[in-house]
Amino acid sequence: MNHGMRREHFTLDVDNVDWVDTDDEPRKPSVSIDFTGPATMLRERLTGTDGDVLEAGETDVALRLQDPLGDDARGVVSVTNRITGEFILELNEAADDVLKFIRAARGYGEAANDDDGRYEVEITLDGDPYVTYDKRTFLVYDDEGSLLRQHSLIPSGVEL
């Protein structure tokens, strides 16, 4: 079993979410994920079968709760390869923080009223930008593995 990529190798920073609680002007939320582990392994996971870096539409972002929703619930944020279903990366986060991020993305999407992404994901390797995705979907699953539609970010017209 390969233990080259650990959740501890990832740090997550979020921007443009506090306006949700203050009714300020909506801004596009962004998350920056910095990886400090073996860069070759993450580069391989972010590369498609054609040898190119995966496009935004070839990736999925999700939160899988580890506890029932409530005080101090924790979850695992994951980015997966939509084509193969393989995990690209995953890291532990407080569920409330992730749900606030999703609310900000939903609010931004309603205010911006455009077809671009509702939020941005930037993956950096030791602080150097590697890939940035504009995303429109962020799925949330409970601790039993069931989709929580009311907490997920699902664009209108998309059937799951």
UniProtKB/TrEMBL annotation:
Name listed for the protein in its UniProt record:
Uncharacterized protein
What organism is recorded for this protein? Natronobacterium haloterrestre (Halobiforma haloterrestris)
Q: Matching InterPro entries, A to Z?
A: DUF5793
Domain of life here? Answer: Archaea
Q: What lineage is this protein's organism placed in?
A: Archaea, Methanobacteriati, Methanobacteriota, Stenosarchaea group, Halobacteria
